[in-house]
Amino acid sequence: MTVPLVYHPDYSFPFPSRHRFPMEKFARLAGYLRSRGLLSADNTYRPGPCRQSWLTPTHCPRYLQRFYSNTLSDREQRQMNLPWSEGLVKRTFLAPSGTVLTAQLALRHGIACHLAGGTHHAHHDYASGFCILNDLAIAANVLAGQDGGLQVLIFDCDVHQGDGTAALLRNQPRAFTCSIHCKQNFPFTKQLSDWDVELAAGTDDANYLETVSATLLAAIHRVKPDIVLYDAGVDVFEGDPLGQLKISEAAIRERDRLVLTTLKNAGIPVATVIGGGYDDDRDALARRHAIVAEEAIRVIERKQLRN
Ligand SMILES: [Zn+2]
């Protein structure tokens, strides 16, 4: 069995290189996986633009229209914190579709990895923290409406709270939001997830891994999900400028391995998204984001890979 990887070449597009958001990381990640022989025509799936019927249960149609037509107010532009361009519009309407596709592939194959996604700060009618549309909430709402209503667990390990996801899915009984994040970090006004696990700034590897493991086991037991959407954010990394935790790259790898192994052993399909990660060394960042796909391939295909 080969792990399906979901990617679109328009995820990265010409973008100011000095901007805090590393827009080129998606192409770098795909390039890195390709260079390792892990991404090829055989295992790549390319999403189409997101269907309107997938977007509107989650987002305000007037907000979508304002973003699409570049008529966001000055305040909305500041909240978005990304310069508007046609390239941005294109990638914004592709990426949530990629997460939906990843979830559908996970249901079929047991696992699939999106080489993007995890824009968990986006709210119903406004952008926040570099997130315009909330792919996790969009996918959860799609899944909740199919096959008699699937039960979804969103297991969000990005260092920042999945505040948009929590707010958007508050009244969705088929989605359970679980966020493990740094208490002192953005967003400074937290929303109420179904389960929030707050880590103190400076949390180290051992405490982190123990927390992730215990939380995942308890969440599975409580929710009995038909599918897990796993946000494997790497901004927990000790060197991440927006992180505040003290997590090594080895521990990120161990985290991803333990999450994917646990779900495999429990027979629960998992769709992964890459989530947040910031680093001026964009190649190092791409390698860090590749960890979750590498571990998926290790766990599922039992392939021997050097790190
Ligand atoms: Zn983050």
TrEMBL record:
Lineage: superkingdom: Bacteria
Keywords: Hydrolase
Domain Histone deacetylase: residue ranges: 19-284
A family per Pfam: Hist_deacetyl
UniProt cross-references to CDD domains, sorted A to Z: HDAC_classIV
Family: Belongs to the histone deacetylase family.
Name used for this protein in its record: Histone deacetylase
Organism: Marinobacter qingdaonensis
